[in-house]
Design a protein that fits this description.
Blueprint lengths: L1 E5 L9 H9 L6 H6 L10 E4 L4 E4 L8 H5 L5 E3 L6 E3 L9 H5 L6 E2 L3 E2 L11 H4 L6 E5 L5
Antiparallel strand pairs: 1-8, 2-3, 4-5, 6-7
Length: about 150
């Protein structure tokens, strides 16, 4: 399956991947409204770690055997058998955070409910990759994780 990979030596720590991820997961899909006026505030699903010397964007690895799915007490966290995408069914999530604790990459986050990268399901390319000015994020077929 295709995954998003970070190329650390190209990352400028600009966090535009976070900005466009948040916008892509907003109701309005408008960059200003998503960041200034939407309630509830949309959440980014990619997180830039590091500093100006060395940084990279971290997001869900859509693991072969995802610990978050195994840990989920309600069955809200699922892995699509066709696409391989690991996603959270918002209607079933109770916000217990067991998936947050189980994720070995630390990329499942929680507000009222858990949220994580969904690879911008339905799009040709995730928003973070599409808008990275330095191409520090790539979307390619990759090996299995975990």
């Amino acid at each position: 399956m295709k995954r998003v990979y970070a190329v650390e030596k190209l990352c400028l720590n600009c966090k535009l991947c976070e900005v466009y991820c948040k916008t892509a997961h907003s109701k309005s899909k408008d960059i200003i409204k998503a960041h200034k006026t939407e309630v509830p505030e949309p959440q980014t699903r990619i997180f830039v770690e590091g500093d100006n010397l060395l940084s990279f964007a971290a997001n869900c690895r859509h693991c072969e055997n995802p610990a978050c799915v195994e840990a989920c007490i309600t069955g809200a966290m699922t892995k699509d058998p066709i696409t391989g995408i690991v996603d959270n069914e918002k209607e079933r999530c109770v916000g217990c955070m067991t998936c947050v604790m189980a994720c070995p990459y630390g990329v499942v986050k929680a507000a009222d409910i858990a949220f994580k990268c969904d690879l911008c399901r339905g799009e040709d390319e995730p928003a973070c990759v599409k808008h990275c000015p330095n191409r520090a994020l790539i979307y390619i077929e990759g090996g299995s994780e975990r």
